[in-house]
Design brief:
Helix content: 25-40%
Radius of gyration: 17 Å
CATH class: Alpha Beta
Strand content: 15-25%
CATH superfamily: Phosphoglycerate mutase-like
């Protein structure tokens, strides 16, 4: 007997209104920009013909706003899962860099000593573990169908690295996880059989990239 095929899609939120260019991380009040709203709608259209029976989201405003048009289109409620939240980061609320950024202040330098953990925030292993648990919940809830989990760039990318048995430490500029992108995990029963990547919002203008999104 063939095991049920279930797909869990990890949807990164759309572009955020962030004119100051701060690393907003888990700070409240960061909403989607006008382009971000268009990205969320583009993602909803991409999912419209798919067999999605469950939608989960990070508790952050930008994630919930990305999930909203998808949930409306599919008539599926959004379930908040705190495990999908952005990674914790020491530099939250600051601009990151030299010049007027946080790196010119010596008291921050010790947080950069170990990029493998990383020393500036939530360990990659812990992020991967909580994301894996959230995906298992989504997979079991939508067994035989498809589920969407709306999350953030770093958590999605670290989970993909774990799923593909790659090292977790990495250069942020090399993440394949664009705004409103979809990283899909296909399962046969409980066995992961395929990882794929899609960009339903490609072509929609994007502002400057800020880490911690």
């Amino acid at each position: 007997m063939t095991a049920d095929k279930t797909i869990v899609h990890l949807l990164r939120h759309g572009e955020v209104h962030n004119p100051e260019g701060v690393l907003y991380g888990r700070l409240p009040g960061y909403r989607l920009s006008e382009d971000g709203i268009l990205m969320a709608k583009a993602a909803a259209r991409w999912f419209a013909e798919r067999d999605v029976t469950a939608v989960f989201s990070s508790p952050m405003q930008r994630a919930l706003e990305t999930a909203a048009p998808l949930a409306d289109a599919l008539d599926v409620p959004v379930t908040v899962d705190d495990r999908l939240i952005e990674a914790d980061n020491h530099f939250e609320g600051m601009t990151f860099g030299v010049g007027s950024g946080s790196l010119k202040r010596p008291e921050h330098w010790r947080y950069l000593l170990n990029p493998l953990r990383p020393s500036w925030g939530e360990p990659y292993k812990e992020v991967a573990a909580r994301m894996k648990a959230a995906v298992i919940r989504a997979r079991d809830t939508a067994s035989g169908h498809e589920a969407v989990c709306v999350s953030h760039q770093l958590p999605v990318w670290v989970l993909r690295l774990r799923a593909e048995h790659r090292r977790l430490w990495h250069h942020p500029a090399k993440r394949q996880c664009d705004l409103a992108s979809v990283t899909s995990l296909a399962f046969e029963g409980s066995r992961l059989v395929e990882v794929s990547y899609h960009e339903p919002a490609a072509g929609i203008a994007k502002g400057p990239s800020v880490a911690g999104a």
